Amino acid sequence: MAVIDHTRSAVVTQPFGGFAETIRSTYARVQAWNDVRITRKSLAALSDHELADIGIERCDIDVVATKMSR
Question: Mind listing the pLDDT tens digit for each residue in 21-32?
Fold first, then answer.
């Protein structure tokens, strides 16, 4: 009599291993970097008076741009 073992679960692998996830992760990092770059550039274009109106100083642009992207 033949015995069929059904206790093992099927192993499902991704078709390209972790390559697709690496591409997605890299794309997300580039997109986040670009968001920070655009925010930094936009804030840098404002005058000191306009920056004061929104409550930041020119020396805080990098910190604000980084925090806004999170």
Answer: 899 999 999 999
- The separation between CA 68 and the C-alpha centre of its own chain, rounded to angstroms, equals 12
CA distance 11 to 54: 54
pTM over 0.85: no
Q: Which of 46, 42, 44, 39 minimizes the C-alpha distance to 68?
A: 39
Write out the two tokens for 45: 């274009």
Asked if residue 48 lies in contact with residue 54, where contact means CB atoms within 8 angstroms, the answer is no
**3, burial (CB in 10 Å: exposed 0-12, middle 13-18, buried 19+):** exposed
